[in-house]
Amino acid sequence: MRVTVKALVKALAISVALAAAAPSLGQNALTRDRDIENNLMMAMAWKQTAAEFRALYYQGFNIARLRVEIALAQKQEGSLPLAIISDVDETLLLANDYWGYLISQGQDFFDDASWDRWVEENRAVASPGALEFLNFCVSNSVEIFYVTNRDQGEATVQLAIENLNTLGFPFADAAHLRVLRESSNKELVQQDIKEDYEVVALLGDNLNDFARRYYSTDVDQRMSLMEEDRDRYGRDYILFPNPTDGHWIRAIFGESEPPASDANRRILKAAATRAAWAP
Length: 279
Ligand SMILES: [Mg+2]
Fold this sequence. Notes:
There is one protein chain. The protein is α/β, with parallel strands linked by helices. The chain has 11 helices and 7 strands. The protein has a single domain, classed as 3-Layer(aba) Sandwich (Rossmann fold). The chain has helices spanning 5-31, 41-49, 51-74, 96-104, 112-120, 130-139, 156-166, 187-194, 219-228, 247-253, 262-272, and strands spanning 82-86, 93-94, 125-126, 143-148, 177-179, 198-204, 237-239. A 5-stranded parallel beta sheet has the order 5-4-1-6-7, sandwiched between helices. The protein has a two-stranded antiparallel ribbon with strand order 2-3. β6 (198-204), α9 and β7 form a beta-alpha-beta unit. α2 crosses α3 (51-74) and α3 packs parallel to α6. The structure holds magnesium ion. Magnesium ion binds next to loops.
């Protein structure tokens, strides 16, 4: 068999590449364990370190401020007072150290029991730009209504007010906080507020913060419902980023808080590889 120099060089290059890859493959196999393999890792590394994550909050609140400025300029004499309706968690308050705790404990799915303990400790921080935006609203006589699906039992309202007050959020009182423990349908509360206020915008990290029609366990249906409303985003609806929880999780798993199991890890993998190159 006649071997050309070109073929020989190619064969040599391949063997060098394989030799270089072999130790690292072996090393990966040795170091794979639950402690460093966690479903939440990439999302939380992004939340904890990416300037892009924080910039998206500033972007959202800058747009919200613009909407308020437009509403103030268009306000007619004798019209209803202006208001903003906002979700609380991952919209105004961030819980990065809760999610960091889960990962440090080797947990890779949300855990309701430890979440309730975390809420009690009052550790939430204000999201970037939240306080500045809400204070801008206050100085322009625009009221804030907080609408949340938190559920820490009878203590829910008191704990949420404490969290908001500790950080200096305005209107952090029982009259401006609506807690929905029985249902996550926020539309009834929105309608109630709209009887007395002109609502400038809804703020949230979950499409369900805007409209109940998005409460679907079908990923494609949820996507197409959002597409129908595409003109409302950045106008009536101001959306903030959340890659760790929300009803997008429910659409994948059929429940908002899926238990940690290999079956659910496989469902997550199927979602992540929905489109996958297979050369
Ligand atoms: Mg939220």
